[in-house]
């Protein structure tokens, strides 16, 4: 049986379907020594190379869908490598053999909060695709006058340079004077969309934190720069939300599951060690 190339590569953890389609269009993928074409179908014996490197093709039954919750700090880039040597969200993630982490969407360098990573590119693609209408929630601190008329405009929709946009909901969340917090929800992932919506009303965003993606919240107590692997039931909550079949296996062993307090204590130590290693590396580079 044959399957579409981009679907097989996404399932095998070589990127989201969108990323793989871009590489096919750029001529970076070859199948059986021929440049791949969009929509091409392959069988299980196909030899596939990405940028000249042969990659592993996994049958569906051998792929374990893993998902990480990552608490992104401000200042990290959502890219695998930065030519200027700046920190990226991939620096702290656990290393894998034969697969790689695919980010579910992006957060800009000045935004912190929840970022999901998965080994299943098809899951990542569906969670990001506008047709699925997966809701994202953000805590936003804004500077400026915000009244009910402005919030109504933002709920109803405003015109941005790349088309109309709106918040699904806006809820006041505290603050004094001109600095106030709001929780907003949105079902798209356009570049800087939350910031641009507020800026369309001449209001400045001074803090932006993603606190939920779909039905998955940012876990309380997870330190910035820390990650936690999702349990099988939570993975299947995500998969059900985008109409994917339930995963039957987990990388985690439920028999050895640690308490949340103990697990987060280990994460805090690991993030502290990472910061110390980065400082020492910078000092050696001077």
Summary, kept brief:
Helix content is 27%, strand content 26%. The chain has 286 residues and is an alpha+beta fold. The chain folds into three domains: 3-62, RNA-binding S4 domain (Structural Genomics Hypothetical 15.5 Kd Protein In mrcA-pckA Intergenic Region, Chain A, Roll), CATH 3.10.290.10; 67-129 and 216-285, Pseudouridine synthase, CATH 3.30.2350.10; 135-213, 2-Layer Sandwich (Pseudouridine synthase), CATH 3.30.2350.10.
| Major sheet details | 9 strands, mixed
- Average pLDDT confidence is 87
Proportion in helices? 25-40%
Please provide the count of β strands: 17
In the CATH hierarchy, the third-tier topology of the largest domain is known as Pseudouridine synthase
Domains counted in the coordinates: how many?
Answer: 3
Contiguous uncertain segments of 5+ residues: none
Query: What's the helix count?
Result: 7
CATH architecture of the largest domain: 2-Layer Sandwich
EC number: 5.4.99.-
Pfam families: PseudoU_synth_2, S4
Biased composition (Basic and acidic residues): 251-261
Family: Belongs to the pseudouridine synthase RsuA family.
């Amino acid at each position: 049986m044959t399957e579409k190339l981009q679907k097989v590569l996404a399932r095998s953890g070589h990127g989201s379907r969108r990323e793989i389609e871009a590489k096919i269009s750029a001529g970076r993928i070859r199948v059986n020594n021929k440049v791949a074409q969009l929509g091409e179908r392959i069988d299980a014996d196909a030899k596939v190379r990405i940028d000249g490197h042969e990659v592993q093709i996994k049958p569906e039954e051998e792929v374990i869908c893993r998902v990480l919750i990552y608490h992104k700090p401000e200042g990290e880039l959502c890219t695998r490598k930065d030519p200027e040597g700046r920190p990226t969200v991939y620096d702290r993630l656990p290393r894998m053999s034969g697969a790689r982490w695919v980010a579910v969407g992006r957060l800009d360098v000045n935004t912190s909060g929840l970022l999901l990573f998965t080994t299943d590119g098809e899951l990542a693609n569906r969670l990001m695709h506008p047709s699925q209408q997966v809701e994202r929630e953000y805590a936003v601190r804004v500077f400026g006058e915000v009244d009910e008329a402005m919030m109504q405009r933002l709920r109803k929709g405003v015109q941005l340079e790349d088309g109309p946009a709106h918040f699904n909901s806006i809820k006041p969340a505290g603050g004094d004077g001109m600095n106030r917090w709001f929780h907003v929800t949105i079902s798209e992932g356009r570049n800087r969309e939350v910031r641009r919506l507020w800026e369309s009303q001449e209001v400045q965003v001074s803090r932006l934190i993603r606190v939920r993606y779909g039905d998955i919240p940012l876990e309380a107590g997870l330190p910035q720069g820390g990650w936690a692997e999702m349990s099988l039931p939570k993975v299947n909550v995500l998969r059900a939300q985008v109409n994917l079949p339930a995963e039957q296996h987990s990388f985690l062993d439920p028999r050895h599951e640690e308490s949340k307090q103990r697990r987060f204590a280990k994460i805090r130590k690991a993030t502290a060690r990472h910061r110390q290693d980065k400082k020492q590396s910078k000092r050696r580079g001077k």
